[in-house]
């Protein structure tokens, strides 16, 4: 999450964020969940752009000053990135049953950095 936040500034792309997250997660022996992603936030909770936890550098929407986004790395301990609903239909679990974690911050994109709005 911290590495993704460093890429969240005007002029970078959503692919820059996703690529940074996936490269770090995989270098640590984990897998990013690809079925869920971060997003823009505004009048609605989930808005465009989608901010995947993987991607190609310099691809996707370019971030703009004043944009509000949520970066949400979801990391699995197993090799299978696919997920399914839990029996209650509310939660999620990995297809291979491996442990997983979800982190999230909401932030304001600025010219040279971002302002994290979900930290004390």
UniProtKB/TrEMBL annotation:
GO MF annotations, alphabetized? metalloaminopeptidase activity
UniProt entry keywords in alphabetical sequence: Aminopeptidase, Hydrolase, Protease
Q: From what superkingdom does this record's organism come?
A: Bacteria
GO cellular component term, pick one: cytosol
InterPro entries assigned: Creatinase/aminopeptidase-like, Pept_M24, Pept_M24_MAP
Query: Residues in domain Peptidase M24?
Result: 2-110
Q: Which PANTHER family match?
A: METHIONINE AMINOPEPTIDASE
Protein name per UniProt: Type I methionyl aminopeptidase
């Amino acid at each position: 999450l911290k590495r993704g936040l460093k890429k969240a500034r005007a002029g970078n792309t959503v692919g820059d964020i996703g690529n940074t997250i996936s490269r770090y997660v995989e270098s640590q022996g984990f897998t990013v969940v690809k079925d869920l992603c971060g997003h823009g936030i505004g009048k609605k909770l989930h808005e465009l752009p989608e901010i995947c936890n993987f991607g190609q550098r310099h691809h996707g929407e370019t971030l703009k000053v004043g944009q509000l986004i949520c970066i949400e790395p979801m990391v699995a301990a197993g090799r299978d990135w696919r997920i399914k609903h839990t029996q209650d239909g509310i939660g999620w679990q990995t297809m291979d049953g491996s442990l997983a974690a979800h982190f999230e911050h909401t932030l304001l994109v600025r010219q040279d950095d971002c302002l994290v709005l979900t930290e004390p």
